[in-house]
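Slide 14.
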Amino acid sequence: MTAGFGLEKLGLLAQRFPRITLLIIAALTIPLAFAAAKVEFSSDIREIFRSGTEDFRNLQMVEKQYPQTGEDVLLLVQAPDLFSRENLEHLRDLHLNLHFVEGVKHVTSMFSAHDAPDASGNAEAVFPMELEGVDIPGLRDTMLAHPFVSEKLLSADATTALFVVAIEPRPKIDDLRVVADDLRQVTDEALAGTDMQAELSGVAFFRLEIVGALIRDQRLLIGAGFTVSLIICLLFFRSPIYALLAGVPAGIAVLWTLGITELRGQEITVLTGVVPGLVTVLVFASSLHLMFGIKRKVVAGEGAREAVVSSVRDIGPACVLAAMTTAIALLSLTLVPHTLVSGFGLTAAIGTAVAFLATITVLPALGTLLLGRRGRKENADHTLDRIFTATSTACRRLGRAILGNPTAFLAAGLIVAIGAGILYATISPSYQYRDYLPANSQSSRVMDVVDKEFGGTEAILLHIQWPKDKPLDSAEVLTVVGDAHKTLETLPLVTRAVSLHSIETWMLEGGLKQAQVLDFLEESKSPFLERMMSVDDHSALVSGYFPAVDASELVPVLDALETDIEALRAAHPGVRFIATGIAPHSARASYDMIIELNRSLLIAIGLNILLIGLVFWSLRAGLYSMVTNVLPIAVAGAILHLTGAGLQFTCVVAFTIGFGIAVDNAIHILNYYRLMRSNGEAVKPALEETIATIGPALAVGCLVLIVGFGAQYSASFPACVCLEKS
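Slide 15: predicted structure.
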């Protein structure tokens, strides 16, 4: 049994029956390409930390009881002076016209403001129906003094107004596009001819931007990585045939991977969006080793068919084992109990298997047909001879320099690996869910303005659940909500809290009695009530708003809140209190995810070392490979530590990918070294010949990987850039 467990014989079979092989490949590619064209994109940021944990179930429960939570569209309008009579009239028309957009439930703005109800329950609108003759400066002062308008819907300098547009929760992406287009059209028409500027944001618009960016990035990552890698192959081999030998399998592998993704019922996410690019560079890397092997044999005088057979026999086993070790590293991600990461691990592992299958079948079949037509032309290509001779000579010299003092190089590598590993182990986690918005996102810019002018867009949701037999029309309900409200608003980071207590305080100041508060809200059919209380579910919700912060700042605040919640539970027996929300849940989950990812990475390292040791029947081979494979990960982590960048979970995913690719290189070296030793070479000459022979393929393969992944710096997602940069 070979190091490839005999799977490299697929390449020999393809070489023997090239036309039949290519017909079978074409028959498989057509339906998979059709499926690939139908693949959809995931846009819900909640999916990033979907899991079976109690924390995620609590988030789902609260969002089910309060479906409008986090679903609002935020319309931001700015001008040097919003309170000119003309601007106010346009803004009032905008407020009214937004209600007529299909899919909009209600709109809240400063034009929704009312005076506090008096003792008889009368609550007059603050804005008059007609602005003619109205004291505009006085109206401005009134708005800036209103507790539900000032620095909530109108900035302190009255230059920024916020319209909160409630839409149907979680519409389909196509329906959401229609609503978004209608909102933009209504806004543009209402503000036409004024100096006011409007921008839209909110979780709903996050979805639109994420899907749009995923589609753009798919085209960029596949197109740029594919094109640049082809150019490198073309320049180095000086032959379009060799470029085709790498390019055709890569294109087929991408189509198969996307088609299988669609057939599995999976969507493209912010992580799996990089899988086609990963598959492309993996195919090019494996193809390079096979093409270098073919080229060496042809230049040495062998015929094309014999050269293909020799290359598959000598290098095919290493390609098999390299694909297996990369797949193991990626499959280790499926151990992480979060759908986004585990789904990425499985999809990427399938992509790795597809990349190997496409390479080991398509390349030998095409090589046999295309190179066979060139006859002996390759032997006369002295330019190529010089290129191969120069690269091999450079690698041989490097090998001799290393083998001249191996102890020093090994000691230096160990010192760097240990030092960098210590820095990696002490790096602090970092995460904000807004990191998954496209770069230069309009939605993100709007959220930044809202954070600055209105105290924040993120929210800690303190959910209060009463027993089903507890009546909700008692004063005790308001007391419990009041205690929870005070607990939340005193937290660090929280700039304001909103709950029934806010409305109660405002109403009592207007002259209403406490006993009338709940009845008044129920009779008024106020849309605010459904955001703060669910009669059917016997629950209430307190929302504490704060500006976007990193998880490292938010988690200590959440820990302090848990202590305060224990005090609430003790003061109100039988009442259940839960703190949740997208930002709190993702902050905690990111910490847990990084721990799980590091654990899965260690498992992948251990399994691959064991596999290498078993395949080569040498425990030393497995241990030797450990240093070279762990070193890049440790150094990358140390750089993140030294530059002050936090450790995002996408970086650990990238380290897992990097480890898998590093193992591939080690396997090709070990495989060729064993081949040299089996031919009777001594240790040192065998190592020199291995470095001289495999070194050029590794160098060009590394260049392809760098350029292919480097193209992803142009990606819209900061997360993708982090993934590839790491």
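Speaker note: The radius of gyration is 32 Å.
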